[in-house]
Amino acid sequence: MDEKGEIYFAKDLSTPSNPRSVAIQEINLFLEPLKSRGWSSDEKLKELYYQNRLIFKNNRPYEKYYLKESQDNCLSVLDFYSRQGTKDLEKLGLKGLFKTPKPVGLIKYLLLCSTPKDSIILDFFAGSGTTAQAVIEVNRDHYLNWSFYLCQKEEKIKNNPQAISILKNKGYQNTISNIMLLRLEKIIKRSEYEILKTKSILS
């Protein structure tokens, strides 16, 4: 919350581009390259600075993104295409792993529109793990601290030889829950997080 009492999120200013350093003497901003992502353009960083919307947490810059802006620009869920979920898996090198994955962007949008700060997200039908990826990316991009629980039966995969082959090559047994675990490993590694603890609860 800012000095006017308006709620905002700290929006990440890294981009899925090549790592680069930043040296903008005009606003005294100097940043080291990130491990696997780039920074927003110098023009964007200067614009945020002069708009008083550049904030720092742990010596890292973020954009001050107001909650009211998110609410004023609500989208229809029809703006999200189901094929985008397939592209999300392709970006992780997991093409063909799941036939009908939900779009990550859709889940992120629904979470940001409806979920309070420091919430616990529960997905009883986790499937390929889209919800987990959405929470991880929102935490990273908006400097939040959401946690999540995923529930998925140890159900064998049927009628998807490509997924069965991918899991076998990765040393996983043929279950939908292992699709989810493989995806989580990929997204956590890409997001530069460390896996501190995992726990499987079986009935």
UniProtKB/TrEMBL annotation:
Catalytic activity: a 2'-deoxyadenosine in DNA + S-adenosyl-L-methionine = an N(6)-methyl-2'-deoxyadenosine in DNA + S-adenosyl-L-homocysteine + H(+)
Gene Ontology MF annotations: DNA binding; N-methyltransferase activity; site-specific DNA-methyltransferase (adenine-specific) activity
Entry's Gene Ontology BP terms: methylation
Keyword Zinc attributed: no
Enzyme class: transferase
Keywords: Methyltransferase, S-adenosyl-L-methionine, Transferase
InterPro entries listed in its UniProt record: DNA_methylase_N4/N6, N4/N6-MTase_EcoPI_Mod-like, SAM-dependent_MTases_sf
Key word S-adenosyl-L-methionine present: yes
EC code(s) of this entry: 2.1.1.72
DNA methylase N-4/N-6 domain residues: 49-165
Organism domain of life: Bacteria
Protein name, UniProt field: site-specific DNA-methyltransferase (adenine-specific)
Organism encoding this protein: Helicobacter pylori Hp P-4
Lineage start: Bacteria, Pseudomonadati, Campylobacterota, Epsilonproteobacteria, Campylobacterales
